[in-house]
């Protein structure tokens, strides 16, 4: 079914992560550590507002943190370099957000293909892979619809599938 790219490792190590938002009374997390081997499934649960999304955003280099280290597959996640963060996400991370952020002017299939179009790597194999992912999430009959023409749940499934388009070593689901 789904295989990560050869030699891609998703081993995630978080060591002593500290994060406080400017002006906040309390830190989001202090000294948070986690070690997840490649192929591991982990759920971080908690009530709203405890920092689950913030943690995922730090792991994906979408947010910064005060101190501590994050590595994915032996590669340090840089907290203060947006360009390197974007390249790291492109190489290693598939992220599905709470809202799928589908572009409204593109069909579901075109939204799936966007990660491959960004680096000009869309070809027949990539297009077939996107179609296969759409089938896996039960959207094979809706590929030509715009996001406004599908339900919220169907859009969410498209967002989940899109996070797998690049066959990431690390899949983050918010």
What does this molecule look like?
By secondary structure, this protein is of the alpha+beta class. It has 2 domains: 12-96, P-loop containing nucleotide triphosphate hydrolases (Rossmann fold), CATH 3.40.50; 108-168. The protein contains 5 helices and 6 strands, in the order ββαββαβαααβ. Strands 2-1-3-4 form a 4-stranded antiparallel beta sheet, with no helix packed on it. Strands 5-6 form a two-stranded parallel ribbon. Strand 3 and strand 4 (75-76) form a beta hairpin. Helix 3 crosses helix 4. It is globular and about 45 Å long.
- Count of DSSP H/I helices: 5
> Which residues sit in consecutive blocks of at least 5 with pLDDT less than 50?
1-7
Largest sheet: 4 strands, antiparallel
Q: Kindly state the mean pLDDT as a whole number?
A: 91
CATH 4th-level superfamily of the largest domain: P-loop containing nucleotide triphosphate hydrolases
What topology, given as strand order, has the largest sheet?
A: 2-1-3-4
Task: Indicate the CATH class of the largest domain.
Answer: Alpha Beta
CATH topology of the largest domain: Rossmann fold
- What oligomerization state is this entry in? single chain
Per CATH, the architecture of the largest domain is 3-Layer(aba) Sandwich
Question: What is the domain tally?
Answer: 2
